[in-house]
Design goal:
Blueprint (H helix, E strand, L loop, with lengths): L11 H17 L8 H6 L5 H16 L10 H54 L6 H8 L17
């Protein structure tokens, strides 16, 4: 069943509450970092599918502690596995929410853009006969201005 046009509002108090909830999440995860592109590329890739491998390795380490060198810190490893599992679950929930927010934003924005184009056409038409509307039409028209660099003309080689 196709979705219907979205007509909704978010009260300012709700926006404030949502932003406070996001701040609360950030406050509960004070250790979060931001990686550069180079740092991302240098790290082994992990995702939800990697969690199973990591958990199996944890089980192998717990069941066979004598095979691990003394330099291997099993406590730190267990902590990393636990945090990885927790963050994977949180990330999945946040990604689902972010995807829904983005899809809704895209749909509502598309509808708003279509309606704004109609307004622009009405303003352009009315500007021909209504004093004072030409600057408004020009301002709205800036959205559709494309700056193109002059392409160098080349002559064919002889």
């Amino acid at each position: 069943m196709p979705y219907q046009k979205i007509t909704a509002t978010v009260a300012p108090a709700d926006v404030t509450a949502i932003q406070a909830a996001i701040a609360t999440i950030q406050g509960k995860l004070p250790f979060l970092i931001s990686l550069t592109d180079a740092e991302r590329k240098s790290l082994p890739k992990t995702g939800p599918n990697s969690l199973s491998f990591v958990e199996h390795a944890q089980t192998a380490a717990q069941n066979n502690p004598t095979i691990l060198p003394g330099s291997f810190n099993a406590t730190d490893f267990n902590s990393q596995v636990s945090l990885f599992a927790t963050l994977t679950a949180i990330n999945t929930s946040l990604a689902q929410l972010a995807s829904s927010v983005d899809d809704t934003r895209m749909d509502v924005g598309s509808t708003a853009m279509e309606e704004a184009r109609s307004v622009y056409e009405y303003v352009k038409s009315a500007a021909k006969n209504t004093p004072g509307l030409k600057p408004v039409a020009d301002q709205l028209g800036e959205r559709f201005q494309h700056t193109t660099a002059a392409k160098p003309t080349s002559t064919p080689a002889k």
